[in-house]
Amino acid sequence: MTSIAVSTTINGDDVEFLCNADETLLDVLRNRLGLMGAKEGCGTGDCGACSTIMDGRVVCSCLVLGAETQGREIETIEGMSEGQDLHPLQAKFIEHAALQCGICTPGFLMAAKALLAAHPDPSEEEIRFWLAGNLCRCTGYDKIVRAVQGAAAEMRGAKT
Amino acid sequence: MTFDPSYKEQGLKSVGTRPLRPDGVDKVTGRARYGADFNMPGQLVGRVLRSPHAHARIVRIDTSQAEALKGVKAVVTAADLPDQSNGDAATFAVLDNCMARKKAMYDGHAVAAVAAIDASVAKAALKLIVVEYEVLPHVVDVDVAMAADAPVLDETVFTTGVEPAPKTPSNVANRSEFGHGDVEAGFAKADMIVERNYKTEQTHQGYIEPHACVANCNSDGTADLWVCTQGPFVYRQVCADLLGLDVSKLRVTSSEIGGGFGGKTHVWAEPVALALSRKAGRPVKLVMTREEVFRASGPTSATSIDVKIGAKKDGTITAAEATLRYTSGPYAGMWAELGAMTSFACYDLENVKTVGWEVVVNRPKVAAYRAPSAPMAAFAIESAVDELAHKIGMDAVDFRIKNAASDGSKSSYGPVYGPIGIGPTLEAAKSHPHMSAPLGENQGRGMACGFWFNFGGQTCVDLNIGADGTVTIAVGTVDVGGSRASLSLITAEELGIPYENVKAIVADTSSLGYNDMTDGSRGTFSSSMAAISAARNAIQVMRERAATMWDISVDDIIWEDGHAKAVGATHDNLAPLSVADIAAEAGNTGGPIAGHSELVADGAGVSFGTHICDVEVDPETGSTRVVRYTVIQDAGKAVHPDYVEGQYQGGAVQGIGWALNEEYVYGADGRLQNPGFLDYRIPVCSDLPMIDTQILEIPNPNHPYGVRGVGETSIVPPLAAVANAVSNAVDVRMFHIPVSPPRILAALNAQAKG
Amino acid sequence: MRYESPATIENAVDLLANSDGHAFVLAGGTDLLVRMKGDDFNASLVVDIKSVDGMGQIEETADGFVIGAAVPCAALSEHAALVAAWPGVVEAANLIGSTQVQSRCTMSGNLCNASPAADSVPAMVAANAQARIIGPDGRRTIDVADVPTAPGQTSLAKGEIIEAILLPKPGARTGDAYLRFIPRTEMDIAVVGAAVNLTLDTDGTVQTARVVLGAVAPSVVVVDAAADALLGSKLSEDTLKSVEVACVAASNPIDDKRGTVEFRNQVAGVLGRRAAAIAFERAGGQS
Amino acid sequence: MVEVTLWAGLRPLADHQERVMVEASTIRELLRKLQDRYPGLKVPFKNDVAVAINGTIYRDDWSQQISSDDEVFLLRRLAGG
Q1: Phi and psi torsions of C101, nearest 5°
Q2: Which residues on adjacent β-strands are paired with residue C197?
Q3: Which CDD domains does the record cross-reference, listed alphabetically (chain D) (predicted)?
Q4: In the CATH scheme, what is the code of domain A4-79?
Q5: Whether pLDDT at A160 is above 70
Q6: Which of C71, C203, C253, C270 is 20 to 30 A from A50 (CA-CA)?
Q7: What is the model's pLDDT at position B524?
Q8: pLDDT < 70 stretches in chain B
Q9: What's the longest Cα–Cα distance across chain A?
Q10: CA C245, CA C251: separation in Å to the nearest integer?
């Protein structure tokens, strides 16, 4: 199998890697780049634990080929905080106890970040449907929804 | 020092507050390392070959082609995991489940495994393993498996618990019975009797993290296992037993765990990974796919339950009887027995009898799932109780209050209760605003109660005080949902220092004494008991050090508000010493300061909850939405209320999923049709409303702060609460869980036809 | 397996035409990558068409809309004119998968995957959508309804690619709608789908109608009897009942893990009726 | 003397008795004397037994005190999730 050379941008940094044609972005992130924040819960796009943002849209990185990311901009959980400053969503997830085991958390945070970029003031229903592709088995979603609402309010406040 | 675990009422400063969890930053930044997030030098990729048949004799396995493939470093079969169970049936079942010996007992049963240099070589190697099967007749349904003409899975299974002992083998492994009084006499006194059969389908714990481990066996007999588990010490023991390793030479490190709910209390692929590593001489990483998780790891029992309950017109239950048939997978279990014990545990009954039948079938070996066996029994009993209340024209809550067990009631499983929380949760439900809120069109309200035993068990904690007076505690119960936060709170409370000064970690098996698993709602209950004991031991050391520093008798020193204080007229002018003051001088007063505790945390106390559920049903499609949900449960004392609420909410939603849509679907060939999150439908965010909680705090007399386990009970009532709500919304009783849209529509059609 | 990302559609066609038969087109990849995970999947070539000019664009023309084969479904709802013209088609496409899947999945892919339960296909067929196909022998345009021939199979020849989906400009007083049944609120495959597209006469009666069912037969079912029942009506209760009966009669499903025959038949009728009512209202109809 | 109630599965191993009188002041002594009297109980006592004293279930702590008016039940050791 011939490797493919890919140049892409991850969390603002230029990144080059080699991958096989059948490797997914998730495989590349975890196995080649050491970015293990994206988790594989299913490998078939049903759980959202591997969510990353590609060119501004949230995607399941298990449903993207590594080769497809040539020239794209990828955001992962590892790039969410600014140095030691947590993103408001990250801070609110901790504050609202929106995680128990935490395996789904990186995926929820990436999806929620994309949500708030598109809809700064989402209704509860909008939050719930936007996040329907992220499975959580621990929390029953209650505290996750509240954390997203809290972060949205804070981010709207910060902008004015 | 003898540890006194009894409850003492006191003002609490840390316990009951809601600080940020210590592992929060790691988990929101992607830095927390789970089962699949660890690698070792020279590591191989392990994969398992699984049976495509529900029941088949393994005639021959030829691994030679796979072994010859470039990049393959080891292939193992049952021959590489020889039977060392010494006739212990339970151990043999675990071994046979990890790697089939003579027969594949279910679709997905492991028959061989490979370790190769990468995933694609491993995948190619699996295809080169030749397995010759003789396909045998299979059975997956519990009632069919009990029939006289069913194919017998195991010729060595003769039903125990019946007399005379049967002379022919069957699929019924055991009969158990509980109860007291005379049910026939009780039914004779009843004005109204409800008698029904209920069914529940098999579900899966559905943790988002698949089983994953890295195993490394060294040539000197030492071994390491990095693994996502609810019980590293138990995994160590089981793996050592199965592989013939010295227990103390196998070091098991529990990773962060991405959900378990009982499913990670059992070993699956870990012994196989160790066997592969032993054979290959290199570390092996083995991560199950989601499909493997569904096909080959821990489902619940599927059940068929007969219930008969009689009551007088005034609402007094005169007799109650249940026969519970539970599948246990291909090996004997005690799941029906648990169901039989919990069935009527909420009620004070003069005449009660429950019988449990353990049934082997060609499905995966049943594993514990949050309050195992209780939700199905509660569905059956609480449905019948609701129907009976309705028939005698009594309010469903009042009917339950009238019959609720209380201090001094003889439980349906035998012992007499002490102070218990079922009455208070029912009273709280009765007065809850949810109970009287108006309902819209096509909406219905249901409620149900649930019971679960909580456990304590063997526990060990180390507490070390740093030179600056900050504290680490090392615990051996895996943190599945925030227990490091609650254990830090408990430690801070006992020492009298700020929460921020305590750091809790989960230790590996070589660093701490044995701990039972995080199961039976015991994590916070038992480790907090040990943390309190360790803190008291450390306080004793600090009092002695203060005595040395002050050069006075230790008897003149008390511990108060996080300080050593000298008492007595002669010592008045001594300023109290903080933990930091004492720690700073530790080098000169006797060396490091630590507290240790090993104990058996018993007396966890039984747990009760009452749930209220509103649903809206589309009568034309059977589509059901939960529109409001309330959980009321006794926590004894909520150490970190956020995470107590989280347990209530999470358990309730798992129960809602079980009630509405989750089920294993088998084809006529006995193969699982829906081994993925697409068609095994756990609740998604948009399916649910907020889940309201009400925490009751009735102190547990057997814990210094009154703490009870809170993890499991919340999954017990929802099946019945949802089914009762559906029944009230569309006026048709539902007897089969999940109450999926096709089942609801079929029931409505049947009713319309009369 | 080889991965290619050609810059022109001709290159893409060449690659596919000269492949060994185990070649696949990659647009959104939300079906293809799932299949690739299977131990028995075998591909020698994947041709990613997202770098081809125009594939990612929605073009509004005098005749209608040209939707490039690589346009993700999420982009459909961001196109105001398309949403105004074909709300039913857009809502059908937007029901496919999660937010994450929406970022990637395409209507062309949904069509070529040829699942009987594809959400966007009944809506496209009801809207008289066409597929513009390019292959070694040039371009041809066919009705969307003629693309899937059986579960997992299409009428596309070796080397052919769907280049774009063509939607006409709806006439005045037109409305369309799509409803599907799933057990949860999201993330499920349709158990039944129903699309209705209708146009009203100046007197407010239905002038033209198409009623299409999904997931109740190997391919979508165009229910002429339901459409006939709508014609000339203002959707009285009797009309709606006739639509329901016609849909139930046309439904020809199987029992599987997602639903029973009885359930699908009954729900096909309910959804057909409800979708007709929504389409009628969107067309400006008043009963 | 303490009156001990056996779970149904144990009774065939103890002359089919439901209740047995034992002179014991701790769980450990109780279990030891019971299996001395009925050797068939040794196997279930090894891993499978729990003891309820006045409704509180003990799975491990065999040092628990028992007095003659206590209600004592032997139960199966249970699994949790």
Answers
A1: -70, -40
A2: C176, C210
A3: Ubl_MoaD_like (cd17040)
A4: 3.10.20.30
A5: no
A6: C71
A7: 93
A8: 1
A9: 54
A10: 10
Distance in angstroms between the alpha carbons of the first and the last residue of chain C: 58
- Asked if pLDDT for residue C41 goes beyond 90, the answer is no
CATH architecture entry for C174-282: 2-Layer Sandwich (3.30)
Q: Which residues of B touch D59 (CB under 8 A)?
A: 455-457, 602
User: Which of B310, B343, B309 minimizes the C-alpha distance to B324?
Assistant: B343
Contact across the interface for A59 and C100, Cβ inside 8 Å: yes
- Phi, psi at residue B235, to the nearest 5°? -60, -40
- Output the six-digit token pair for B303: 């059940």
User: How much is the mean pLDDT over chain B?
Assistant: 96
Distance CA B491, CA B499 (A): 8
Residue B222 to residue B277: CA distance in whole angstroms: 12
Chain C partners within 8 Å of B622 (Cβ): 263
* Residues of chain B contacting residue A42, judged by C-beta atoms under 8 Å apart: 290, 676-677
Question: Is the separation of the CB atoms in B635 and B711 below 8 Å?
Answer: no
What subunits touch chain B, counting only 3 or more CB pairs under 8 A? A, C, D
Provide the sign of the torsion angle of the four alpha carbons B713, B718, B719, B725, taken in this order. positive
**Closest residue to B682, CB basis, from A22, A90, A135:** A135
- Domain presence at residue B722: yes
Residue appearing with tokens 């209220």: B612
Nearest CA in chain C to B124: C39
Residue of C nearest to A48 (CA): C100
Q: Closest to B702 (Cβ–Cβ): which among D56, D60, D71?
A: D56
Same domain, B464 and B565: yes
Q: In this complex, does chain C touch chain A, defined as having at least 3 beta-carbon pairs under 8 Å apart? A: yes
Could C5 and A68 be called an inter-chain contact, meaning their C-beta atoms sit closer than 8 Å? Answer: yes
Is the CB of residue C134 less than 8 Å from the CB of residue C163? yes
From the options 3.90.170.10, 3.30.465.10, 3.40.50.300, 2.60.120.260, give the CATH code of C2-168: 3.30.465.10
Instruction: Encode pLDDT of C7-27 as tens digits.
Output: 999 999 999 999 998 999 999
Average pLDDT rounded to a whole number, residues C160-181: 97
Chain B partners within 8 Å of A128 (Cβ): 685-686, 688
Judge contact between B12 and B496, C-beta under 8 A. no
Residue B678, domain extent: 303-454+605-753
Cα torsion angle, B595, B598, B603, B608, sign: positive
Report whether A114 contacts A57 (CB < 8 A). yes
Q: What is the ipTM of this complex?
A: 0.97
Q: Which residues from A are below 8 Å from C36, CB to CB?
A: 22
B742 in contact with chain C, both atoms CB, cutoff 8 A: yes
Tell whether A70 is within 8 A of chain B (Cβ): no
Q: Which CA distances in Å does A56 have to A68, A116, A118, B117, B223? A: 15, 12, 9, 36, 46
A69 Cβ neighbours under 8 A, 6+ residues apart:
A6, A8, A25, A28, A54
The architecture CATH gives domain A88-159: Orthogonal Bundle (1.10)
With a cut of 70, say whether residue A159 has pLDDT above it.
no
A142/chain B closest Cα distance in angstroms:
5
Nearest to B475 by CA among B455, B491, B498: B491
For chain A, how many residues are written? 160
The residue type at C78: E
Binary contact (A47, B646; C-beta < 8 A): no
pLDDT 10s digits, B523-566: 999 999 999 999 999 999 999 999 999 999 999 999 999 999 99
Q: Do chains D and A touch (3 or more CB pairs under 8 A)?
A: no
Alpha-carbon Rg for chain D, nearest whole angstrom, is: 12
φ, ψ for residue B528, nearest 5 deg: -70, -35
Q: What is the pLDDT of residues C222-275, one digit of tens each?
A: 999 999 999 999 999 999 999 999 999 999 999 999 999 999 999 999 999 999
Domain ranges for chain A, please list them: 4-79, 88-159
